[in-house]
Specification:
CATH superfamily: P-loop containing nucleotide triphosphate hydrolases
Structural class: alpha/beta
Number of domains: 1
Number of helices: 7
Strand content: 15-25%
Largest sheet: 8 strands, mixed
Order of helices and strands: HEEHEEHEHHEHEHE
Distance between the termini: 89 Å
Shape: globular
CATH architecture: 3-Layer(aba) Sandwich
Radius of gyration: 24 Å
CATH topology: Rossmann fold
Helix content: 25-40%
CATH class: Alpha Beta
Number of strands: 8
Length: 295
């Protein structure tokens, strides 16, 4: 007889694997995931139930008893790719805009990262269309040379290219022309070009590029916008994205009311292109045009 008594044999319990202790990097990664999940939940609660798929314009709002939409807002999606040399602050700029935070520990972007944020705006130029909802898809690219081959495919279907340089790094400023040329090769004159001088919070003695130089280059290249920002303090970050969102909705209206394709000639990368809309955001006190730095 079998030693087993009546009934089914109980399955053997699997031994629990000891859990690995999380280091500081793991904890930071988990915190970032939690922040992204919370941001996605907040976005979903604002936009209503169900995922928003596809591009172009979508209508959002509550349904009345007859199935029609009331309190309708227009949702337009735009893909924005961030370009620039390594360590200029592309990721920090996105993080400040998305979560209003700044990480003092530098970590280089590996490959491509993607985040999305929705902005709510008033009506267009006429004000007759009601509120507009703009979803900005932010694509963060790595500045290292080894990831350079990945970037053209992300530029190819983008609506906006934001080229970032470090005001304390002359080399990153001189690379703006090259990044602009990359966009021109993939998108022609269709993409909106924006130039951003980051780290404007640094002391004037560390500044290697004046605000006037940045604005002049932006105008020469025919870029649509020029801003100076600080990811650390948040200076200029929200105004940058708000101005960009307003510009995109105006272009959508002029292109036939919001096809979200970013067409137009605001991305010319040669002299004599469309004049740039430059925003005077000022510089740190004591930094005058042409002032030399210690770098």
């Amino acid at each position: 007889m079998s030693g087993r008594q009546g009934g089914k044999a109980k399955p053997l319990k699997k031994a629990k694997k000891p859990q690995r202790e999380l280091d500081e990097e793991d904890k930071a990664h988990l915190e970032k995931l939690k922040s992204q999940k919370k941001a996605a939940q907040d976005m979903a609660s604002k936009l209503g139930k169900g995922p928003l798929a596809g591009g172009g314009i979508k209508k959002s709002g509550k349904k009345n008893r007859r199935g029609g939409l009331i309190e309708t807002t227009m949702l337009t999606k735009h893909k924005i790719v961030f370009l620039g040399d390594q360590s200029v602050g592309k990721t920090s700029l996105i993080t400040r805009f998305m979560y209003n935070t700044f990480d003092t520990h530098y970590s280089a972007t590996v490959g491509i990262d993607f985040l999305s944020k929705t902005m709510y705006l008033d009506g267009g130029n006429s004000g007759e269309d009601g509120p507009r909802t703009v979803r900005l898809q932010l694509w963060d690219t790595a500045g290292q040379e080894r990831f350079r081959a990945l970037i053209p495919s992300y530029i190819r279907d983008s609506h906006v290219a934001i080229i970032v340089y470090d005001v304390s790094n002359r080399g990153s400023f001189e690379s703006v022309r090259r990044w602009c040329q990359y966009v021109h090769e993939e998108r022609g004159d269709d993409a909106v070009l924006v130039v951003v001088g980051n780290k404007r919070d640094l002391p004037s003695t560390q500044r290697c590029v004046t605000s006037d130089e940045g604005a002049a280059l932006c105008e020469e290249l025919g870029c649509a916008l020029f801003f100076e920002t600080s990811s650390r303090s948040g200076q200029g970050v929200v105004p940058l994205f708000k101005k960009l969102a307003l510009l995109l909705t105006e272009r959508d209206d002029s292109d036939g009311h919001g096809n979200g394709n970013g067409s137009g000639n605001g991305g010319a990368c040669a002299g004599g292109g469309q004049a740039a809309t430059t925003i005077d955001v000022g510089v740190n006190e004591g930094s005058a045009a042409g002032e030399q730095c210690s770098c």
